[in-house]
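Colleagues,

For the teaching module next term, I've prepared a clean inverse folding example: a structure given as tokens, and then the sequence designed for it. I'd like students to try predicting residues themselves before seeing the answer, so please don't circulate the second half yet.
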């Protein structure tokens, strides 16, 4: 399992109750409907890319890989963004999705 980014691990150690509540909310959101795990993870990646949130994209990639996502599947998510978000945004997303450490 990949290591959490240092800044998040530090926040979590100082604000355990907040992180626990957030993790419970995240779990409830993931369990709120019929989508399977891998599909949910892909949607979270797409949302992070569309919102321009690099840290969220890295987190979503870590979770997607834990759910069995391949690099080619992750790349396709970014490529699909070309016609919706534009070429530069899709290239930025490809960079995020291919970062070696995902942090």
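(Answer key — instructors only)
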């Amino acid at each position: 399992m990949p290591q959490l980014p240092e800044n998040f691990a530090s926040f979590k150690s100082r604000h355990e109750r907040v992180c626990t509540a957030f993790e419970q909310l995240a779990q409830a959101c993931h369990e709120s409907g019929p989508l399977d795990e891998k599909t949910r993870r892909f949607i979270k990646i797409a949302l992070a890319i569309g919102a321009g949130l690099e840290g969220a994209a890295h987190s979503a990639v870590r979770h997607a890989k834990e759910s069995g996502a391949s690099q080619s599947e992750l790349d396709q998510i970014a490529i699909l963004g070309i016609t919706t978000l534009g070429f530069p945004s899709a290239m930025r997303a490809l960079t995020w999705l291919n970062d070696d450490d995902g942090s």
